[in-house]
Design brief:
heterodimer, A: mainly alpha, MetI-like fold, B: 13 helices, 70% helix, disordered C terminus
């Protein structure tokens, strides 16, 4: 009995997960092919003085597996074989492995992404519901115009504006209350607690920046999803059964309005990743965004593909998570 | 509200080409317009965007400096009567540069938004109407582009586009701005396909392309107009972000993005280098998106977040 009830749910999520996994694989391989077609890894060595001989360059490129003279299909096949058999993503042009590079940077990016996304989702949903319930009142108008304004600000401008504000605040207080360059203060003395506090302070502005962008977008969607729900008959039914207004809104309103939000969350996650990369660059964090941009400017095909794979896996996780939320909220999936 | 639900279908029931185009659509556009007139958002957006456009066209007339002029006696000066927005380190007039940059960003936005909407309309209608393998392949392709963040693809493709003129950037931005709308159009088309007037046309032997052009696209045109309007702001945001990091508009040309990149280092000490271009950028995008949002509400007041 129990298994029969759970089966369709697991089936639904498995099906979606496989769909996402195939998409991730194709996206990564397309990125590899595209990067191989556009980037020219040899250019880096041709510009050196004295210029290395063609054999040397060929040997270096062969070693990295990015020699343009080898057909793309063959290189891609080697890349896949290496990934499957050794779990290796190849080497960067700086002779470090891509995996170690990602391992060193992933934590930085994930910290920003996870905290920023969670705050954005919570604040966005709360503001959206509030705006819908108080439709056309002052608070709704204020939230609407506020989120329109934030959505009109590019993320790099928002980051720099926050830095200007923090500088003004620091000057006003006459002390370095908020520090914002880099991820931590280099060469900081002190115990574990001092380091933790230092990182938390550095995290403040980038997180605010990312969370503001996300919350503004989510609150618009949550508001209009909630407005759809509020006009539905079952809210009136719930009220006439004797539920209080608040209880009817939360149990029957917000719950249903979150269903379209979970789909939107999956679709918007790629935008969030791009926004996070820009935020990292503006605040000079050494995260995955920087790795990706550096890989392109230095024509490093392996590092680029690794960074794209990292992003694609994050989208895979976000998509699956939103499907789980969707299935948990919408009983129709479970039938 | 129920009146509006009936309307989109009623519009094109009689599909004859000689039906006076004005009679029925006018009633609907009049309805939409009367709703628009009642929305303060719409007027704020229209007046804002109109003012920005006029300013971009005529703003240089009263200014004494051109954007390439260097005032070597006033390098790095703050806003004054001589230089309204101040000058940069090498004496460029920020006011003149802002206007020239604004022109470029506006042109890019105003072209990319409609272009992307046209692509979205055609791809979505083809996928939804033809169904089958066409549909599956197109949806997979769209999903693929949604998984790869387009900002990263722009940066990857930038070496190619750097060597071309800034016009190429328009096609690049339009080429990656249509995916989400195409999915919405596809969903709409699939339900339209089962309507009687489309079936009638099909059984009469009208060919596929004509059905898409004459019956499907007019029925999703309101969505496309909204998308084109909202796309203007989105395109300007993408362009400035790319240019800011040096992957978009290149050196001799000026856009709001390159201007912001130049002003970034001095943002804290000499804020006018950054604040003025940034404020104008935000105001432009905000105006465009207010119009788009008002249009969406006017076309379909019951519309939810998610039509797909």
């Amino acid at each position: 009995m129990r298994a029969a009830k759970a089966d369709p749910l697991i089936g639904f999520i498995t099906k979606r997960f496989i769909n996402y996994a195939i998409l991730t694989a194709i996206a990564t391989l397309s990125a590899y092919a595209l990067a191989s077609a556009i980037l020219n890894p040899a250019a880096r060595y041709l510009g050196r003085n004295p210029r290395p001989s063609d054999e040397t360059i060929n040997a270096i490129l062969d070693n990295l597996g990015v020699n343009p003279n080898t057909p793309v299909i063959e290189r891609m096949w080697n890349w896949i074989v290496n990934l499957v058999t050794q779990g290796s993503l190849g080497e960067t042009i700086h002779n470090t492995t891509v995996v170690s590079e990602i391992a060193a940077r992933a934590g930085t990016s994930l910290r920003l992404l996870i905290i920023g996304t969670i705050i954005a989702a919570i604040v966005g949903v709360v503001l959206g519901v509030w705006g819908a319930v108080r439709q056309y009142r002052f608070s709704d108008q204020a939230i609407s115009y506020g989120s329109f304004t934030i959505l009109a600000i590019p993320s790099f401008v928002l980051g720099i504006l926050l830095m200007i504000l923090a500088t003004m605040l620091n000057n006003l207080l006459g002390m370095q209350l908020i520090s914002f360059t880099g991820e931590y203060t280099a060469g900081l003395d002190g115990g574990w607690w001092a380091h933790f506090w230092d990182r938390a302070v550095h995290l403040l502005l980038p997180t605010i920046s990312l969370a503001l962008m996300g919350a503004a977008a989510y609150s618009r969607y949550q508001r209009s999803a909630m407005l759809d729900v509020l006009s539905a008959d079952y809210i009136r039914t719930a009220r006439s059964k004797g539920r209080t207004r608040g209880s009817a809104l939360v149990r029957h309103g917000v719950r249903v309005a979150l269903i379209p939000m979970s789909t939107y969350f999956a679709y918007s996650f790629a935008t969030v990743l791009a926004g996070a990369a820009v935020t990292e660059l503006v605040f000079s964090w050494h995260g995955m965004g920087e790795m990706l941009v550096n890989a392109i400017t230095q024509s490093d095909i392996n590092a680029f593909t690794g960074a794209i794979l990292f992003n694609a896996v994050l989208i895979l996780i976000a998509g699956t998570l939103s499907d789980v939320v969707y299935a948990a909220l919408d009983p129709r999936v479970r039938v | 509200m129920s009146l509006l639900d009936e309307l989109p279908g009623a519009d094109t029931d009689t599909a004859g080409a000689e039906t006076p185009q004005s009679a029925k659509p006018v009633s609907r556009s009049r309805l939409v317009f009367s709703r628009l007139r009642g929305m303060p958002r719409f007027w704020v957006g229209v007046v804002g965007l109109g003012a920005i456009a006029l300013w971009a066209i005529f703003g240089l007339v009263p200014n004494a400096w051109n954007y390439t002029d260097l005032d070597i006696y006033n390098m790095g000066s703050s806003p004054s009567r001589l230089h309204w927005f101040g000058t940069s380190d090498i004496g460029e007039d920020i006011y003149a540069q802002t206007i020239v940059g604004l022109r470029k960003s506006l042109i890019i936005g105003l072209l990319v938004g409609p272009l992307a909407a046209i692509v979205a309309g055609i791809v979505g209608a083809v996928a939804g109407y033809l169904g089958g393998w066409w549909d599956r392949v197109i949806v997979w392709f769209i999903d693929l582009l949604l998984v790869l963040p387009s900002l990263f693809l722009f940066i990857l493709l930038s070496p190619i586009f750097k060597s071309l003129s800034w016009v190429a950037l328009i096609f690049l931005l339009a080429g990656f701005g249509w995916m989400i709308m195409a999915r919405v159009i596809r969903a709409q088309t699939r339900s339209l396909r089962e309507r009687d007037f489309i079936k009638a046309a099909r059984f009469m032997g009208v060919d596929t392309w004509t059905i898409i052009r004459r019956h499907i696209l007019p029925n999703v045109s309101s969505l496309l107009i909204i998308d084109a309007t909202l796309g203007v702001g989105g395109a300007i945001l993408s362009e400035t972000t790319l240019s800011f990091f040096g992957f978009g508009i290149q050196a001799p040309d000026v856009s709001l993005g390159t201007l912001l990149a130049a002003g970034q280092s001095a943002a804290a000490t000499r804020p006018w280098l950054f604040i003025f271009p940034a404020a104008i950028l935000v105001f432009t995008v905000l105006s465009a998106s207010l119009i788009g949002d008002a249009l969406r509400d006017a076309v379909d007041p019951t519309s939810g977040a998610n039509r797909d």
